[in-house]
Specification:
The chain is α/β, with parallel strands linked by helices. It folds into two domains: 193 residues, 24 nucleotide stem-loop, u2 snrnp hairpin iv. U2 a', Chain A (Alpha-Beta Horseshoe); 84 residues, Immunoglobulin-like, CATH 2.60.40. Strands 1-3-5-7-9-10-11 form a seven-stranded parallel β-sheet. The protein has a four-stranded parallel β-sheet with strand order 2-4-6-8, with no helix packed on it. It has a four-stranded antiparallel β-sheet with strand order 15-14-17-18, with no helix packed on it. It is globular and about 55 Å long. The termini are far apart. 35% of the residues are buried.
Length: 288
Amino acid sequence: MKKPTFFVFIIFFNFIIVSAQSPCLPEGIIFTTQAQIDSFQVNYPGCTDIGWHTSISGPNIENLLGLSVLNSIGGNLHIWETSLTNLNGLEGIEAIFSFFIILNNPFLKSLSGLENLTFTGSDFWIVNNDSLTDLSGLVSIIINPGLKIAGNGMLSECDIQSICDYLASPNEPIIIENNAPGCNSQQEVEEACELIRIEDQQLQSLSITPNPIESNAVISFYMQKPSPVFLLITDMSGRKIICLTYELHAGEQSITFDASSMKPGIYFCTLKTNPPAGGQTKKIIKLK
């Protein structure tokens, strides 16, 4: 695996500055029992941003609800050899600043619980989870190189937008193998992603005015057919700033959002349809 880049440490430093809560557990933490998960908030009151590597491993770990207060992991997050069926309890986590590895969890069926995760600082591995069938929890994630999806024998659908976006960019390494047909190779997933792009070219002529912005901004675009639309604005570290859903008709559309509470800086504005295909991202600059 690659070592975290200097850029990742810059992001981590910026996150510490803007975070309302300084990182706790600077040496990280290892969970090996369900009791440790359940008592986390009692043993570490006020701890919302773990400062270093975090490991969750143990055959009697069946849920992560005790970790619902967490916002970020400052190092690696390893979830391996548990009895989890989903990742509910991690909904508050928006950033993992190094490797994220989900490995050898035989009962894990879905990645629900990761819907608010927008950033990983390094490799993202989903490996040898025998019951996994659903990646739809990865709705907001911006994946950094590299990606490994392997040995998940029941996983046949990997063409979710975050994976498709990653494959569409010149990223490496990419390892997709030994899953179920449909997600058994990089080529299979790319072909499925291409079908989504052809079928659901929903959003066209996306523009944002004014840009740079000071207070309100208007996003204009054309919808080919009625659909829910998700608006997601993230900062440079991948943290979610705005997340809204709209039910829109076909034709010319516009969305106005209030940026007055956003700090000066560079942000990314993403619109996605439901199912999450045909998304488009634009860079926006917030002035004073």
